[in-house]
Write a structure and sequence with these properties.
The structure holds 3 protein chains of 3 kinds. In chain A, the strands form 2 sheets. Chain A has an 8-stranded mixed sheet, sandwiched between helices. Chain A is built from 11 helices and 12 strands. Chain A is of the alpha/beta class. Chain A is about 30% helix and about 25% strand. Chain B is mostly helical. Chain B has a single domain, classed as MetI-like fold. Chain B has 12 helices and no strands. Chain B is elongated. Chain C has a domain of about 180 residues: Orthogonal Bundle (MetI-like fold), CATH 1.10.3720.10. In chain C, α1 runs antiparallel to α13. The chains are: A alpha/beta, B mainly alpha, C mainly alpha. Chains in contact: A-C, B-C. The interface between A and C is medium-sized, with 29 and 23 residues.
């Protein structure tokens, strides 16, 4: 199956006062129709930036290179106007903070169907009934009345439902969810995750789910890409990556995950801090924090992405043998 | 008890460094230095006496002998512009000083004690705020009689409410912070808390407001003296020189140009330094004072 | 909403009461006897006694104030020491000149400031942006009367396009009104425009960095739609206040420009009243201007609440 969205050798360099910041330093990933790709990493790892850049939402000061394909169309080098026509129509976005991602002075109904008015030529009237339909679909009670309410009249979880309705207004082929649950409380998080999964099955939408929450990934993703320092360190089917993690970083992440089943209060953390995008190391970006610390090669030479099993690749000179990692 | 206040030395160094980096602020500071020198030593530095009437030198265009030309009485415009710098600076400093001391005191008490005192004081400030700046100043001067002192008082009164508001807003946010409550809990007296804990922590917005107000105050002084309500002749003031020169302006442009340019440069310098200070000390403050900057 | 309006109305009423007290006390602050001072060399005992009685100066202070307040409420602001005519009439007949100048100046200012402020925010760092920042720094620092004098010098003296001063009523001859209003309105307007430009720019920049603007871009809306519907609407809410405050302060505050251009408005009236020590007229003009100022501010707050749906709930 052809991917909905695929990026090849994508780099994003942002000009800052202290020199160029290499936010994304060459990544490849793809998401197929109906599938969910999880991009995992700490903040600053380039996971959000790679998606924003691929869809033309990178900040103005960013320089983007590489190839991007949407539904088989080449997006590299096309005009911003063309990219704009695809955004919203074929790709819907859900951002992190529902408190700030809605315009405070427009009714939610208006905001939900704006994209449909723009791309599908819906009249204001048709848009309104469509808005009610969409709000109903994402589980907002008495949508017929709430459609004329303003964002501040909704709770955080309800607002995120509005944002999801908004993203799905044109029934896009792809939904990009950028840490959509981070700003919500735990119960609401679960509801939102469930809602997106539900809608995905009903509408056949592909999803790119950007998160640092491995618990969510295990539950919903088909494939996963672990990012660090602007590069992918490990990617593959979620069972393979979680079942036999082969990069020391992935292993450390999984070990650092709080395990309610084990009931241990002990929280394992990874010592050190991620590299600054202003000053990426020449070799493996994880080397300064790596528990394995192979040899000088790791410090000075960038390890290639090598396959360990079908569709499962890892960027290290020292792939970790499986040691019966818990799943 | 630890005295948790701003690290003043670090702050000062930060301000100086920022001013050095910003070419506009540097230019502004330089202009101010020149201005102070001229203001203090104007009468010694001036090439000729300010009231030397010279009938056969009337309305001479700029020349080597008179770089800014001469006025309708043959007086040297450059000398008069130089000597008038003192008046502008004096009125600016004294009136903003009045506004700062009175306004900050009122704002401090209002914000610290809250309650009815706050209500009464701030409603009084609202009343003063309800008059356009220059109109109120004109009315006050009209009642007290024109002159240097009344101009200072009038401008001081007019700019008091803005200092009261800025101070009060600062006090309200500082009041609730841990170190103030700690000081209260160990039984420090109100005055001591205000002086040692509250004031130092609201210094930044007050410094910014002071430097921007100096610009407005000098503009207001110029306007008052343009209306004949400031310093009385024959003492020179920039605004008055403009007023006197306005009848000759089509024949003798220098009479209107140079005094006005002096006002402009002075106000510009204070604004540039004020903006730079705000960028360093208080970047989010863009409020009513901006909106009321109009000199009208 | 109704409660908000009522609360603001009450607040304004209290402040207005304070304003009348200040205006009333102005006269008491005059050193010596205001009527004697006003009459000066024209002093004669009969006029003196008549004016004192008319101004109520023979009563105790408190009685005087309540009397003043009561008459002010019915529109009676006393009589001019100079002409003996009612102050209310004198002040009101000057209103059209001031109004036409203030409105023209603000319209001019908006015509300059909106495009400049918006473009300089959207194209932050561009040539337009730099020009806008230089312009606004110039405008807030320049004395308006100096710019007016330079304007007269250029457009009237050198080019001979516009009359140097004077006034023609709009109702009398719109063409000549326009040629007379051009210079003073442009002078006042440029200062106002620079303040507005600065404010619009910073307000726009703040909104442009909001998450919901990125949301709008993510929907694939046209840039025009994003700017007009999402950015401008939010950015202009605070700007409305600034425009109104500017307008209000121009209504009473353009004394210097009205004097310079011989424009017979409220400002000029104030100036003449000060020169002639005609205190009742001064009081009347100041009171009217402050009342207008309060009224505009009240209307703005209500408009603000209408524009920003969040306020009604708070």
């Amino acid at each position: 199956m052809k991917p909905v969205l695929a990026v090849e050798d994508l780099t994003v360099t942002i000009g800052t006062r202290r020199g160029p910041a290499h936010a994304v330093a060459g990544v490849d990933w793809a998401v197929r129709p109906g599938e969910t790709l999880a991009l995992v990493g700490e903040s600053g790892s380039g996971k959000s930036m790679s998606v924003l850049a691929a869809t033309g939402l990178a900040p103005r000061t960013a320089r983007v290179t590489g190839r991007v394909h949407l539904l088989g169309m080449e997006l590299t080098g096309v005009t911003e106007e063309r990219r704009r026509r695809l955004r919203g129509r074929h790709i819907g976005f859900v951002f992190q903070d529902p408190m700030t991602s809605l315009n405070p002075v427009l009714t939610v109904g208006r905001q939900v169907t704006e994209a449909a008015e723009e791309h599908l030529g819906l009249t204001r009237r048709a848009a309104r009934s469509r808005a009610v339909e969409l709000l109903d679909m994402v589980g907002i009670p008495s949508a017929g009345q709430r459609v004329d309410a303003y964002p501040h009249q909704f709770s955080g979880g309800m607002r995120q439902r509005v944002v999801i309705a908004m993203a799905l207004a044109c029934e896009p082929d792809l939904l990009i969810a950028d840490e959509p649950t981070t700003a919500l409380d735990v119960t609401t998080q679960a509801q939102i995750v469930e809602l997106v999964g539900d809608l995905q099955r009903r509408l056949g939408t592909a999803v790119v789910w950007i998160t640092h929450d491995l618990g969510v990934v295990a539950g919903i993703a088909d494939t996963v890409a672990v990012m660090y320092g602007g590069r992918i360190l490990e990617q593959g089917p979620v069972d393979a990556v979680f079942g036999t993690p082969s990069h020391p970083y992935t292993k450390a992440l999984l070990a650092a995950r709080p395990d309610p089943a084990a009931g241990s209060a002990e929280l394992v953390t990874i010592a050190g801090a991620p590299p600054s995008p202003l000053d990426l190391p020449a070799g493996c970006a994880f080397w300064p924090r790596c528990p394995v610390r192979g040899d000088a090669r790791c410090e000075h030479e960038l390890p290639p992405l090598v396959p360990v099993s079908a569709g499962h690749q890892v960027r290290t000179f020292y792939p970790q043998p499986s040691d019966g990692e818990r799943r | 008890m630890s005295e948790q206040t701003i690290n003043h030395e670090g702050q000062l160094r930060r301000v100086l460094a920022a001013l050095r980096r910003d070419p506009l602020a540097l230019t502004g500071s330089l202009v101010l230095v020149v201005l102070v020198v001229v203001g203090v030593g104007g009468s010694w530095l001036a090439p000729s006496g300010i009231n030397e009437v010279n009938v056969d030198q009337m309305l001479q265009p700029p020349s080597w002998a008179h770089p800014f030309g001469t006025d309708e009485l043959g007086r040297d415009v450059l000398s008069r512009v130089m000597v008038a710098a003192r008046v502008s600076l004096q009125v600016g400093l004294v009136s903003v000083g009045i506004a700062l001391v009175v306004g900050a005191t009122l704002g401090l008490f209002a914000g610290y004690y809250r309650g009815w005192l706050d209500n009464v004081l701030m409603r009084c400030m609202d009343v003063l705020f309800a008059f356009p700046v220059l109109l109120l100043a004109v009315a006050i001067v009209a009642v007290l009689g024109p002159g240097l002192v009344t101009a200072m008082v009038a401008i001081g009164v007019v700019y008091t409410p803005i200092f009261a508001r800025v101070t009060r807003a600062g006090v309200l946010s500082v009041r609730e912070q841990v170190f103030v409550r700690a000081a209260v809990s160990v039984g420090a007296s109100d005055l001591r808390i205000m002086r040692r804990h509250v004031l130092p922590n609201i210094a930044a917005p007050l410094i910014v407001q002071t430097s921007l107000s100096l610009a407005f105050a000098i503009l207001s002084e110029a306007a008052l003296s343009f209306l004949g309500l400031g310093v009385q002749p024959p003492d020179p003031a920039w605004g008055r020189m403009l007023f006197d020169g306005r009848g000759f302006v089509t024949d003798a442009w220098w009479l209107g140009f140079f005094p006005g340019a002096a006002i402009f440069l002075t106000v510009l310098a204070f604004n540039l330094v004020g903006d730079a200070l705000r960028d360093v000390l208080d970047p989010r403050q863009l409020t009513v004072s901006e909106a009321r900057r109009s000199t009208a | 909403m109704a409660r908000f309006v009522i609360r603001r109305l009450l607040q304004s009423a209290v402040v207005l009461l304070g304003v009348t007290l200040v205006v009333f006390l102005l006269l008491q602050l005059v050193p010596g006897d205001p009527v004697r001072v006003a009459l000066g060399t024209r002093f004669d005992p009969q006029t003196y006694e008549a004016l004192r009685a008319r101004a109520g100066l023979d009563q105790p202070l408190v009685v005087q104030y309540f009397d003043y307040l009561r008459r002010a409420l019915t529109g009676d602001l006393g009589v001019s020491f100079r002409s003996g005519r009612p102050v209310t009439a004198i002040v009101l007949e000057r209103l059209p000149a001031t109004l036409s100048l203030a409105v023209t100046a603000v319209v001019f200012a908006m015509a300059v400031a909106f495009p400049l402020g918006i473009v300089s925010a959207i194209r932050s760092g561009s040539l337009v942006d730099h020009a806008a920042r230089v312009f606004s720094q110039f405008g807030v620092s320049v004395p308006d009367f100096w710019m007016g004098i330079m304007g007269i010098l250029l457009f009237s003296g050198v080019l001979g396009w516009l009359p140097p001063s004077g006034y023609v009523a709009l109702t009398e001859d719109p063409g000549r009104w326009a040629s007379h209003v051009a210079l003073p309105a442009a002078t006042v307007g440029l200062v106002t425009a620079s303040i507005l430009t600065r404010f619009i720019r910073s307000s726009m920049l703040e909104v442009l960095s909001e998450d919901y603007v990125r949301t709008a871009e993510a929907k694939g809306l046209r840039t025009r739609v994003v700017v007009l519907r999402h950015v401008l609407r939010n950015a202009l809410i605070p700007v409305v206040t600034v425009v109104a405050v500017q307008l209000a302060s121009l209504l009473g505050g353009v004394i210097v420009i009205e004097v310079l251009f011989a424009w017979p408005g409220i400002g000029r009236l104030t100036y003449d009243a000060v020169a002639a020590r005609d205190y009742p007229v001064l009081q009347g003009a100041v009171l009217l201007v402050a009342a207008l100022f309060l009224l505009v501010n009240l209307l703005v707050d209500i408009l603000y609440a209408r524009l920003d749906p969040r306020i009604t709930v708070k």
